[in-house]
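Q: How do we represent a protein-ligand complex in a form that can be generated token by token?
A: Start from the inputs.
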Amino acid sequence: MEKLSTLFVLCSLALCASSFVLQNRVNEDSEALALQEWYDRLPDMPQKVTKLHFYLQDIVSGPNATNIPVAVANSTKKSPTLFGLIGAIDDPLTKGPGRDSMIVGRAEGLITSASLEETAYHMTLSFVFTGGRYNGSSLSVVGHNPFYHEYRELPVVGGSGDFRLARGSALLRTYSFEKTGDAVVEYNIVVLHYC
Ligand SMILES: *[C@@H]1O[C@H](CO)[C@@H](O)[C@H](O)[C@H]1NC(C)=O
Ligand SMILES: *[C@@H]1O[C@H](CO)[C@@H](O)[C@H](O)[C@H]1NC(C)=O
Ligand SMILES: *[C@@H]1O[C@H](CO)[C@@H](O)[C@H](O)[C@H]1NC(C)=O
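Then emit the structure tokens for the protein with 2-acetamido-2-deoxy-beta-D-glucopyranose bound:
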């Protein structure tokens, strides 16, 4: 018992020490201080609704594929839904549907074939904006994507930069789907975030 309580005291001291170090670091760094101040102002900050529209270019074929398989189970190739396949993506997000349309960002993350019953993916993505008003900001999108449904809705669960603490919804619709497996998917996103 005594040993346990000594251990507890030692752990508490270690915790205090580590939070002290973190506290010091925050105060020295102006970016970190700005982040802290942003949260201090949060109770008075109004929210706004922002709508985004772009196309995701998912390229699985050829030497410049932006969607590559990184893991499969032995049973995946026998599965009609490719259950168990995990792909890493770094797909361009473009203003228009054409592959050479202006790039406004990248969708980076993982897509998992996560249904035994139908072709449906669990998406875990960061939408990283690289141009325009939201350059440098990102949105985190996580959710269920039954690929052959006309419309799919994915939750926007967070973000960074202009989209810090964002919440919203992404509506997806396949614009084109080639025999090669390459697809263009239209995204309409509505997010609630702070000014
Ligand atoms: C792949 O990318 C390289 C380098 O950007 C480019 O030269 C080549 O034409 C591309 N190939 C295809 C099939 O798009
Ligand atoms: C998967 O297949 C390989 C090669 O046939 C085999 O060695 C391995 O044991 C299998 N793994 C499982 C989990 O069934
Ligand atoms: C986006 O921001 C980066 C980093 O600040 C900058 O280097 C780049 O030129 C910007 N891109 C555009 C298209 O504004």
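Residues 74 surround 2-acetamido-2-deoxy-beta-D-glucopyranose (ligand 2) (CB under 6 Å). The CA atoms of residues 141 and 156 lie 5 Å apart.
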